[in-house]
Amino acid sequence: MADIAVPAPGAVAEAPPRPAFQIVPLRGLPIVAAVLVGLVVAIESDKLWALDFFHVAGGGLWTGFDLFLGFVLGPILGRLAIPARVEMTTRLMPKMLLIMPTLVTVTLASGWQLGHKLGTIQSGYAHHGWIVASYIVVGVMAVIALSVLEPANVAVLYELKKPRPSPEVIQRLMKRFIYTAGITGAMQIATLIIMTKVATA
Amino acid sequence: MSEERLPPVTQVAVVSFALVVSAGIYLAALLPHHVALGPAVALLACSALLLVGNVIALVLAPAFNWPVFLGVAKWALLAYVVIAGFIEYVFVKDGTRGGVLAILTCSLVVFAVHVPLLIGFTVARYQPR
Fold first, then answer.
1. What is the pLDDT tens value at each position of chain A, 201 positions in all?
2. ipTM for the predicted complex
3. Would the N or C end of chain A have less CB density within 10 A of its end CB?
4. Are B9 and B61 in contact (CB under 8 A)?
5. How many whole angstroms separate alpha carbon A146 and alpha carbon A141?
């Protein structure tokens, strides 16, 4: 099966109105930098509370975003009229480009360090099977998010930046985004089960 | 509507990611005990080969919008180098060394190159030259 280069087939004369936007909102970069500096401080200090804070807060937000996007916002987005969908997309997606990678990095980095400190990542840990299950769930989510969801997100925004975006291209990419958001949302339920199991073990 | 055929970059990338993630899970699952590196090296090598294959396939694609690809991929590369750097930092910080660290580092390199390649490709394939 080959990918197809689609030369913006359905470009319309009158593009739906779009608010001005940046694909990567530069104003958010200092916030991302501050969070990452906080993460480094937490890891360097190796304090249990700081590591737990970043892992629980980051993981909770990551799970919440995925569930909300997959099961609440995604289906709504799919049923909106085109102009409303375009406006929603141009306001939401750029923020997601900063928020999601930051949350994932914070959760995984602090989680690994926390697991190292608590001994839960050691293969001798009593509930190591649950930890390995969490690696697998995160791995599958990473493959889906990195290979389908995020590229589609960037491509939609790039298309919407054009003076005459193609509704066909946007619809195709949005469909990919909504379906994969649903899959990662479903996988986050597995994350919740595993993490609560480990936390109460 | 005229359509130019492009290589199956996305599908190959999915397999490459799955292989490199499997290598990481295999190593992480067995730490800190002595880990046989052979399976992880094999998974990583296959993943890296697919990455190289994807690059070659793209270079040989006749109708590919390289300016758009490079414009997007360079910023994505910067972002993913930072992310991979953080993960590497945590591995080094917790004392991972030797062959395991080398494999994890190479896995992160594959990750940090392949994701931007895929993002750039997904954007560029919809932009006619």
1. 455 555 454 444 566 677 788 899 999 999 999 999 999 999 999 999 999 999 999 999 999 999 999 899 988 988 888 888 888 989 999 999 999 999 999 999 999 999 999 999 998 899 999 999 999 999 999 999 999 999 999 999 999 988 888 888 888 888 888 889 889 989 999 999 999 998 887
2. 0.89
3. N
4. no
5. 8
Residue of A nearest to B95 (CA): A116
Rg of chain A over CA atoms, in angstroms?
19
Contact A150 B123 (CB under 8 A): no
Count of CB contacts below 8 A, A vs B? 135
Asked if A36's CB is within 8 angstroms of B90's CB, the reply is no
CA dihedral A176, B47, B24, A200 (to 10 degrees): 20
Dmax of chain A from CA atoms? 64
Two structure tokens written together for B129? 């030259």
